[in-house]
């Protein structure tokens, strides 16, 4: 019998930092879902911005340029599905094994980290290490 009431949030939302009421995630499925949704959202925005930039630069080739945003968003969605599932699954396992409660801000932070890794990995590093 548990004396702790475990109430999860239904949507990937944050709460104001100084708020009296806070939401926490306990179930690994919720942690995975929140991380996946935030990663999908941020990857979609980044890929859409890059696709619009590519369309703005290549505006002369108007017959083929319309497919660029579609291709970029589909590729971004697949990347987000893989990255969000891996990170969300690991976070869920770690937090469950340690019996920790997770703030609803943590999946957003990890989605931002995923996006930053994506952006940094897009640059070619051609130096001698």
TrEMBL record:
The chain crosses the membrane at residues 31-57, 64-92, 104-125. The keyword tRNA processing does not apply. InterPro entries: TMEM170A/B/YPR153W-like. It is found in: Membrane. Keywords: Membrane, Transmembrane, Transmembrane helix. It comes from the Eukaryota. The keyword Nuclease does not apply. One of its GO terms (cellular component) is membrane. It is a multi-pass membrane protein. Belongs to the TMEM170 family. This is Integral membrane protein. It comes from Sporormia fimetaria CBS 119925.
């Amino acid at each position: 019998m548990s004396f702790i009431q475990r109430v999860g949030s239904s949507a990937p939302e944050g709460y104001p930092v100084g708020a009296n009421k806070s939401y926490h995630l306990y179930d690994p499925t919720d942690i995975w879902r929140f991380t996946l949704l935030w990663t999908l959202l941020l990857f979609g925005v980044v890929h859409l911005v890059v696709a619009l930039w590519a369309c703005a630069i290549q505006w002369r080739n108007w017959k083929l340029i319309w497919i660029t945003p579609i291709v970029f968003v589909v590729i971004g969605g697949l990347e987000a599905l893989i990255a969000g599932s891996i990170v969300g699954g690991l976070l869920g396992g770690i937090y469950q094994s340690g019996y920790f409660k997770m703030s609803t801000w943590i999946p957003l932070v990890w989605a931002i980290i995923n996006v930053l890794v994506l952006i940094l990995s897009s640059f070619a590093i051609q130096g001698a290490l």
